[in-house]
């Protein structure tokens, strides 16, 4: 099934929408949610993942991290481990690398 990229307007195939077990995006690092507006084409999604990993490091793809949008539009990450373990900062200084609590987030099925 063809979808249209919400960033650049390019048309691309979506395996999940076509009823396949997984989409091509499941092979990429799990940096979600990417956008609330819809799916991105392969090129735009790769650019977004690179940008996020450069800005946030491991937090961008960690199962324990919650991505929050501040009033001014900036994005901050809340570490879920900080709720039960005081060795983890509630709002870590970014980018984070080598975190002992890092757990790769699972790719969710896309609509």
For this entry, give a set of tags.
alpha+beta, 14% helix, single chain, 2 domains, 4 strands, disordered C terminus, 111 residues
Question: What does the model show?
Answer:
The structure is a single chain. This protein has 111 residues and is an alpha+beta fold. It folds into 2 domains: 56 residues, no CATH class; 49 residues. The protein is built from 1 helix and 4 strands; from the N terminus they run ββαββ. A two-stranded antiparallel sheet has the order 1-2. Strands 3-4 form a two-stranded antiparallel ribbon. The chain starts with a strand and ends in a 32-residue tail after the last strand.
Question: What is the terminal-to-terminal distance?
Answer: 12 Å
How would you sum up the major sheet?
2 strands, antiparallel
What is the radius of gyration computed over CA atoms, rounded to a whole number of angstroms? 15 Å
- Supply the helix-strand structural class: alpha+beta
Mean pLDDT: 83
- Taken together, the total number of domains comes to 2
Q: DSSP helix count?
A: 1
Low-confidence stretches: 107-111
Instruction: For the largest sheet, list the strands in their spatial order.
Output: 1-2
Order of helices and strands: EEHEE
What is the count of β-strands? 4
Q: Tell me, what's the shape? A: elongated
Helical percentage? 10-25%
Q: Tell me the β content.
A: 5-15%
């Amino acid at each position: 099934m063809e979808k249209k990229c919400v960033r650049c307007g390019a048309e691309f195939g979506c395996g999940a929408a076509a009823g396949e077990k997984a989409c091509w995006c499941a092979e990429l690092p799990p940096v979600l949610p990417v956008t609330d507006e819809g799916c991105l084409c392969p090129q735009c999604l790769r650019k977004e993942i690179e940008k996020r990993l450069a800005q946030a490091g491991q937090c961008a793809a960690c199962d324990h991290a919650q991505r929050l949008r501040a009033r001014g539009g900036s994005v901050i990450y809340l570490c879920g481990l900080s709720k039960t373990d005081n060795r983890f900062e509630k709002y870590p200084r970014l980018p984070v690398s080598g975190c002992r609590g890092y757990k790769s987030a699972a790719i969710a099925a896309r609509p």
